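Render this sequence as a predicted structure.
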Amino acid sequence: MRHIIFGGDGFVGRHLAPRLQAEGHEVIVADIAKSDLPHYGEIRFENVDVTDPASIARVGIKADDMVYNLSAKMLSPLQVRAKRHDFFFPVNYYGTENIIKAMDQAGARSLVHFTTDMVYGHTFVWPQTEEHPVAPLGEYGLSKLKTEELAVEWRKRGMNISLFRPRLIIGPGRLGILSKLFKLIDNNLPVPMIGSGKNPYQFISVFDCASAAHAAFNAGVPNEVYNLGSLNPPPVRKLLGDLVKHAGSKSILLPTPAWAVKRTLDLFDLINMPIMDPEQYLIADEMCVLDVSKGERELGWVPQYRDEDMLIAAYSEYRRGLAGGSQDNVAHAKAA
């Protein structure tokens, strides 16, 4: 079978593509840039800008193709408030719409699409099932929620669309906001936490994301939405404390009054000097834990990687990058 991965040169796609190719499938990676990845010896690459329908048309989607949309603009690099809509929506929403319309014209009916847990906004009940209310706190989450609404409409027209809402994806290939944390630890500086640090913080491994997309294909692309997150995430205090200990750093963890920190960050955001995106800091002290049991029940998917191990692995990769031993730490804002 032929698999087309839009945004396939990015973080998740670079692991999904060789996984599918190893099973004997024909794989096409469609992305706006091409990295030096070994599997391009076996996998076709097409230079594609998802904001341009003509560019998508050049891929030549066929009726029986399996399509994945991993293309996205992410929360990193930071954007000032006035520019966020125009930064996120062209790729995240209109790019998704362009892909779906191209599929429709070709008669293709199977799509796996990644959105984000940021569609939930504030936590009302935890752990959060897929039925949790959705109320995004910013343009990134809103752009992704609008693609979920697109999926609902196109399902009515006969498409099968599996949606995934991942927590913060980490692994080789992306640092994002973690680079700021790692710099503090390397310099033995205090590590401020928003709040007491008693709430858990949940990640999801890039490898587990790739396996979830694969599982959706194997399950026949159910018309459902699935959370993606680790199992049993530890409290922030333990997660960061273990990392500081692993790094041999003298950094101390600094609890802060969450309300005061949030209002201060709000002020910086208001004057167009954002330090963090509001979608990140407004929920930093909340119980943001996704229930991933639906994926196990319906797809047979179970996350394999622990938060503690993922964070330490990301730090180790960061250190190797500083030493010039790896180029995998480049953040890919263009793809999920």
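Summary. Confidence is low (pLDDT under 50) at residues 326-336. The longest strand covers residues 160-166.
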